[in-house]
Design a protein that fits this description.
This protein is an alpha+beta fold. The chain has one domain (1-34). The protein has helices at residues 28-32, 38-41; strands spanning 10-11, 18-19. A two-stranded antiparallel ribbon has the order 1-2. Strand 1 and strand 2 (18-19) form a beta hairpin. The chain is elongated, with a radius of gyration of 11 Å. The chain starts with 9 loop residues before the first strand and ends in a 7-residue tail after the last helix.
Length: 48
Amino acid sequence: MPTDACQWFYECTNCHTLLKPKPGDCCVYCSFGTVPCPPIQAGQSCCG
């Protein structure tokens, strides 16, 4: 997981489904991860 940037798309290595953020989320980690991405955790803008 990047610590200073967004990742808008992620291709699943098992089923090859292309994941993209849900509306209102900044990246795939915020949409599908168990915790928000590091920039959001640090109180920063994910995509800034």
